[in-house]
Amino acid sequence: MTPRPHDKLEIYKAAHELALGIHALSLRLPRLEAFEEAPQLRRASKSVAAQIVEGHALRR
């Protein structure tokens, strides 16, 4: 895998780890929340890391 410039950013690493943790946690939610809140939690957590990558790319 080729190294990506944003992989060196500490904030990206933290956001990525948080997104992975939230995804794992969302899979353990009760059935009602699994269909309502879980997808939104997963999208929002992944969005943070994606915005960091986008912002880093725009500054280069």
Query: In which range does the helix fraction lie?
Result: over 70%
Residue-averaged pLDDT: 89
- Radius of gyration equals 14 Å
Rough outline: elongated
Indicate the topology.
Blueprint: H1 10-26, H2 31-36, H3 38-59
Helix pairs in contact: 1-3
What does this structure look like?
With 60 residues, the chain is mainly alpha-helical. The model has no long low-confidence stretch (mean pLDDT 89). It is elongated and about 45 Å long. Helix content is 75%, strand content 0%. The chain contains three helices and no strands. The protein has one domain. Helix 1 packs antiparallel against helix 3. The relative contact order is 0.19.
Question: Summed up, what is this model?
Answer:
The protein has 60 residues and is mainly α. The chain has helices at residues 10-26, 31-36, 38-59.
Key descriptive features of the protein:
about 60 residues, mainly alpha
